[in-house]
Specification:
Elements lengths: L15 H41 L5 H28 L4 H46 L8 H4 L1
Length: 152
């Protein structure tokens, strides 16, 4: 045989070990792309909710500012996790990965703590968002001029 014909060990289509490694790489790449797509959808969803609350509430309200903070935490958390994943996959020494892994952990802890605090604070203030307009609406018929005397 000449030098251009592959032998059994060189041909990746007939070598089961090489095919298994290739399928594993394809499976990992597919899983990574699926996770990235899901994270992108979640980031878009957080952004849409932040924009919707910007239109529903004042721009300086706590709910809008908190949702913007959560969006920033989520964006930086996913970027940091991607860096850690890429360095881990490239088999770099741990002294390069360790600071970024620590930073990623701090960002994700901040995200989850902020999310819990946002849920608690907004659920406590939600009652006043619904009760106060109802109170004003129930008092309106008894006032001859509406809320005009109160505003003067």
């Amino acid at each position: 045989p000449d030098d251009t014909t592959p032998t059994i060990g060189q041909n990746s289509t007939t070598d089961p070990f090489a095919r298994g490694k290739q399928k594993k790489k394809e499976r990992e790449l597919h899983e990574y792309l699926r996770k990235q797509k899901t994270l992108l959808y979640v980031r878009y969803l957080i952004g849409i909710v932040a924009l919707a609350s910007l239109f529903a509430f004042d721009w300086s309200s706590s709910i809008v500012l908190c949702q913007c903070l959560l969006l920033a935490y989520f964006t930086f958390g996913t970027q940091s996790s991607l860096i850690v994943w890429a360095y881990t996959r490239s088999k770099e020494p741990s002294d390069i990965i360790e600071p970024e892994r620590t930073r990623s952990g701090v960002i994700w802890r901040g995200f989850f703590l902020s999310a819990v605090l946002a849920i608690v604070v907004d659920s406590m203030s939600m009652a006043s968002w619904f009760a106060f307009p109802t109170l004003i609406a129930s008092e309106r018929p008894s006032l001859p001029l509406g809320l005009f005397p109160v505003s003067v």
